[in-house]
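Form 12-C: Joint structure prediction
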Amino acid sequence: MTTMPQIDLAGAGVQPATAVAKPKVVARDVNVHYGEKHALHNVSIDIPEQAVTAFIGPSGCGKSTFLRCINRMNDTIASCRVTGRIELDGEDIYDRSLDVVQLRARVGMVFQKPNPFPKSIYENVAYGPRIHGLAQSKAELDEIVERSLKRASLFEEVKDRLDAPGTGLSGGQQQRLCIARAIAVSPEVILMDEPCSALDPIATARIEELIDELRENYTIVIVTHSMQQAARVSQRTAFFHLGKLVEQGPTEHIFTTPEDKRTQDYITGRFG
Amino acid sequence: MSEHIVSSFDTDLDTLRSKIAEMGGIAEKMLGDATLALVRRDAALAQTIIAADARLDALQRDIEERAILTIARRQPMAVDLREVVSAIRVAGDLERIGDLAKNTAKRVVAISGELQPPKIVGGVQHMSDLVQAQLKDVLDAYAQRDDQRAMDVWQRDERIDALYTSIFRELLTYMMEDPRNITFCTHLLFLAKNIERIGDHTTNVAETIHYLVTGVALSVERPKGDKSSFTTTEAVDK
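Section 2 - Result
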């Protein structure tokens, strides 16, 4: 690993060996409790910008919990308590003065099941830019909608029926619509929680192709149960087990020569 | 290593391992018999070696097909992927060892009617004994996933190279002494070269074992003792 610029973090004296060159998101000693349950233990990770970072691990390992910390989605769960520090571009996202709505505009999210609004395709994409006041005119809004749909590789398929309901699209198209909706507010980070688990292999391949294209402009974090998918789309991979971040590193390293026995057992299908 | 959740995956890998072991046994026997046939000038024994090579070729094809099927069906990762890739590579080396042993046997048949000074055969036999020990060690190292033992084999090949260089010089001397030795000595030269090449394939297997066990390819150059490429008749005269 080459020399990394030091990140000035209070309480984080030594740079972890797994630090990355240009971290977009920096997490240190993140702990999550759901009531009495200690769901996440001391997670520290750097997430590089313009790259795809995959979180893998068995069900209940904490990977989705951690993903949801990055845009404070866990705030919506009453019993949930998050401690530690998560920074976006060096700014503490759990700072009291921070506007959570603004944060979620910067850190977008795509869910496991495509969840378009029960509105037209156009409105699904236009909704975010409108409430955030990103467009001054109808023409400008039209342009944002078209650009977002193009970036999500959906425009050609829906350009003649933008007024049709978003829920009438196929599963794969709905998921791309949700990605277009996330992109429309110009986020910097896109979190994806098993975005392909409800899709067939062809729709999955199109989303993976899209993720690869989006990486040029966005920081992407994806939670996936498919190890092949993690191996295919990500540059870095983090393995979670029993609420702990066990191992993280370049994807090719994790999938060919993992260092921790638990990682090896999981990716080779030896978990008892 | 603990077992896979899908037990038929373990069966697939076990089958690959046992087929490699079978190939190793055949290759060992072919090399041993070829040397014995040379020493005893036994053309009949040499013929059985030539026949045995077909089985080795069939096994190699079988291992390759199974390995490819395993990759397609199981998408092996990490140590499993190295295991499958290593099986393909080791099978390839063992198949080449078989070819070289077969060619050695063919040359034994060719020279079985020639006059020969027994002393030179002794040098080749000694080299073959060393190579057979190397082959046995490397096959054991593969079966036991023993990197240290594989690295010992890898280091020791230098001695075989040095021995080959001295046989090369010795054969040149015989040929210069009496042109009637040329046919026999030329065959013996190729035969010695075959055995030296078998030694090189054992080091390939050793490198594969290192990769299989550690996940890292050997990046350093192997110590080499074969100077025959630079040997001239002037050098032999001195």
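Section 3 - Comments
The mean pLDDT of chain B is 92. Chain B has one domain: 3-237.
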